[in-house]
Structure to design on (152 residues):
């Protein structure tokens, strides 16, 4: 690296560190730590819908729903302002012997309940070579729901 390039790099590094110190107030840092650390577990288990939450979704700014499918592939979804929201849970699995599988379910978060959306089906779509299957089967289990409130 030439001297002018090194000098430019050092000045950029110093300015970036100075800016981060100016912008990192204790309140800002406290808010991030509070929001990330102090979630409330509203459900912990391993079951199909309906799921009963220990508190209403209306009391939370964000819910994180953790779930798995029958082949132990885990996923999660964050839902902001979650009460009365229709959420699409999906996960996939790729097996070199049996093909690719996509598992889906629409759920409705309403008060203290997470349940399958009326008039919808939980699906598993399997593709193996040129064969496509789409049975109506519920292969999604909700394992944990955590609620986060705003500190304000």
């Amino acid at each position: 690296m030439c001297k002018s390039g090194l000098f430019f790099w050092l000045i950029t590094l110093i300015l970036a560190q100075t800016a981060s110190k100016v912008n990192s107030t204790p309140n800002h840092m406290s808010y991030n730590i509070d929001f990330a650390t102090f979630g409330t577990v509203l459900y912990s288990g391993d079951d199909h819908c309906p799921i009963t939450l220990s508190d209403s979704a209306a009391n939370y700014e964000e819910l994180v729903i953790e779930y798995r499918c029958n082949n132990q592939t885990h996923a999660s979804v964050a839902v902001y302002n979650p009460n009365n929201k229709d959420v699409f849970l999906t996960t996939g699995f790729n097996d070199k012997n049996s093909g690719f599988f996509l598992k889906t379910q629409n759920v409705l978060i309403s008060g203290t309940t997470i349940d399958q959306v009326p008039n919808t089906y939980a699906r598993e779509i399997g593709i193996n070579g040129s064969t496509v299957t789409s049975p109506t089967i519920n292969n999604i289990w909700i394992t944990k729901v955590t609620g986060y409130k705003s500190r304000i």
Remarks:
- The chain has two domains: 1-38, 39-148.
- The two ends are 48 Å apart (CA to CA).
- The longest helix spans residues 3-23.
